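Quick one, tokens below. Sequence please?
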């Protein structure tokens, strides 16, 4: 995934300590997990609605 590599490069280029970069990755991972959960829930709701 090209955007993932761009994100890694961007974070690596920041003038931050390793612990700060790790914290950024942790926040991004939590966000990605939350967004995935919301989208999965939304998909299930759409599937359970009657057509029309």
């Amino acid at each position: 995934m090209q955007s993932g590599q761009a994100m890694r490069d961007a974070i690596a280029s920041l003038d931050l300590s390793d612990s700060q970069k790790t914290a950024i990755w942790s926040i991004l991972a939590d966000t990605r997990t939350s967004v995935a959960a919301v989208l999965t829930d939304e998909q299930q709701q759409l599937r359970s609605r009657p057509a029309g």
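The first helix runs from residue 2 to 13. The chain has two helices and no strands.
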